[in-house]
Specification:
This protein has about 280 residues and is mainly α. It has twelve helices and no strands. The chain starts with 7 loop residues before the first helix and ends in a 20-residue tail after the last helix. This is Sterol desaturase family protein.
Length: about 280
């Protein structure tokens, strides 16, 4: 059973409390909740957990197989193993997240999370139904000798932390924290479709990777949530698979194999005639 499942009751309670906060303390500058949107997010979250149960079993087997090949086996009793795991997991998440914005077939899985026009705690639960694309990014940790159960636990810790980033109810935090940690302010930028905010702030728990690899953007202009081309549906099946359908449509009508491959492997928004493809592109095809 995925560890994050045990936090689901907490997630539901906090979503309800945040929704109530908008009822009694409305803010015209915040999008708040919309019933159909929130229902779609919760449905996507429930579906992702149903799929996660068998998939985590497969993931454990793959991690364990790679771990047996590790030249050393790191001990869970050593605090340094946990330090390595924390930074290694967060860097793996950064690489995973950035790749899923820059390779369209990976974006087809991740676009689900960006498809809401709202930004609240329910948005955090709007997760992909095709999690298989994440597996390769954490394999180096197993090869370094980190036990598979530790990798899965740290992934759950990261996801739990990121749940609390999806809110407009929290402004900026204490400046030293904003410099080091991913915060609601930083993650609001990541969910923005504003041109200044595209392809920015990929971090999980830490924001230092974005600062180091020059993908950081502070929150400035008001964030417009969603995609540069929104999908206009609350149907969970369409939300889950619309971009795969769009990729198939584009690749099938391509004139050359090179162009067909480009529609699959290049950034979202790429076409044979495009010059500046961007990551936050959705499709209703």
């Amino acid at each position: 059973m995925p560890a994050i499942v045990y936090a689901i009751p907490l997630f539901v309670v906090l979503v309800a409390l945040e929704a109530l906060s908008y009822r009694f303390l409305p803010d015209d500058d915040e999008r708040g909740y919309e019933v159909r949107d929130a229902a779609t997010s919760l449905t996507m979250g429930a579906g992702s957990q149903v799929i996660a149960v068998p998939w985590k079993a497969c993931t454990v087997l793959v991690y364990a197989a790679v771990w047996t090949l590790a030249p050393v086996r790191l001990s869970a009793a050593s605090p340094w193993t946990w330090v390595l795991l924390f930074f290694g997991d967060d860097l793996a998440y950064y690489a995973y997240h950035r790749a899923h914005h820059r390779v369209r077939v990976l974006w087809a899985s991740h676009v689900v999370h960006h498809s809401s026009l709202h930004y609240n705690l329910s948005t955090a639960l709007r997760q992909s139904w095709t999690p298989m694309t994440a597996l390769p990014f954490w394999l180096p940790l197993a090869l370094l000798g980190v036990p598979p159960w530790m990798i899965l636990l740290e992934q759950a810790v990261s996801l739990l932390y990121q749940f609390f980033l999806h809110t407009e109810r929290v402004d900026r935090l204490w400046r030293p924290l904003e410099l080091i940690l991913n915060t609601p302010s930083h993650h609001r930028v990541h969910h923005g479709s504003n041109s200044a905010y595209l392809d920015r702030n990929y971090g999980g728990i830490l924001i230092v990777w974005d600062r180091l690899f020059r993908t950081f953007e502070p929150e400035g202009e008001r964030v417009v949530y969603g995609l540069t081309k929104n999908i206009g549906t609350f149907n969970p099946v369409r939300v889950a698979f619309h971009e795969y359908r769009a990729i198939w449509h584009d690749a099938r009508r391509a004139d050359r194999w090179r162009d067909a491959a480009g529609y699959v492997l290049r950034p979202p928004g790429w076409s044979p005639t495009s010059t500046t493809p961007r990551a936050e592109v959705g499709s209703v095809a």
